[in-house]
Amino acid sequence: MDNYFLTNMASNLKIITIVTFDTTVYDSFAAVFDECLQTYSGSSMVSVQSNSSNQSISPLVYPLGTLPFYPTVQIDGITVMLKQGDITKVGVDAIVNSTNKTMDMNYGASGAILEAAGSSVKNECKMLGSQPHDGVVVTGGGRLQCLYIMHMVGPKTVPFITAAVEKILEKCDQLNIATVAFPAIGTGKTSSYNPIF
Fold first, then answer.
1. Reported pTM
2. Are 153 and 101 in contact (CB under 8 A)?
3. Which of these, 128, 116, 95, 93, lies nearest to 18 by C-alpha position?
4. Which of 73, 143, 150, 163 is the most buried (most CB within 10 A)?
5. pLDDT digits (tens, 9 = 90+) for 20-30
6. Is 168:182 a contact under the CB 8 Å cutoff?
7. Which residues pair with residue 137 across a beta bridge?
8. How far is C-alpha 63 from the chain's CA centre?
């Protein structure tokens, strides 16, 4: 992700949210956020923002786990935040759906996204048809609190995950998206458990 923003300085993207429902996965990602911050700052603190919309946009710094805030890091001016919860309830411009080649995966985060989005999105997916292993396509948001759903055929290795994330970021720029939510990619039934962000 860092390389993408170094070569695309004019990106409209402001906030990337990684959302996971699972506590173990959340804790693993939070540890990665803490390691990331330690690497750049030499401290064991995580840059976090309040989840209240009335708070300042400027990040505050607190020890990980001491306050009810979301772990947050800055990457090339982009806020990357981790939330535990239901990705279908996140209010963003776009939600990423890691799915199968036929875009009809009915379990995990993908199943929850398709069910919550409703039949209009399922119909769009059917019309788009089967996608290549590295495919990324965009549909409307259906009944979700987003304008778009970006469907990517679920990559299973770190190089493929990295390439897929970069394709999603390119689509975000093409559509002038400022906020996007990703599921915890690489942690589902068909993937090995290893946070890459």
1. 0.77
2. yes
3. 95
4. 150
5. 888 888 888 88
6. yes
7. 151
8. 23
Backbone angles phi, psi at 116, to 5 degrees: -70, -35
Residue 106 token pair: 């009915």
DSSP 21: S
Distances (CA, A) of 122 to 14, 73, 116: 29, 34, 10
Domain 88-183 classified CATH 3.40.220.10? yes
What are the φ/ψ torsions at residue 47 (nearest 5 degrees)?
-75, 125
Kindly give, in sequence order, each residue whose CB lies less than 8 Å from that of residue 148, ignoring residues fewer than 6 positions away: 93, 94, 95, 138, 139, 140, 141, 175, 177
- Strand (E) or helix (H) holding 108: helix 108-117
pLDDT in tens, 76-88: 788 888 899 999 9
Say what the alpha-carbon torsion angle 164, 49, 84, 25 is, to the nearest 10 degrees: 60
Residue with tokens 């776009």: 94
- Domain residue limits, the chain: 22-83, 88-183
Name the amino acid, one letter, at 30.
A
Main-chain dihedrals φ then ψ at residue 114, nearest 5 degrees? -65, -40
Q: How far apart are CA 50 and CA 184, in angstroms?
A: 21
Q: Judge whether 110 and 97 are in contact, CB under 8 Å.
A: yes
20, burial (CB in 10 Å: exposed 0-12, middle 13-18, buried 19+)? buried
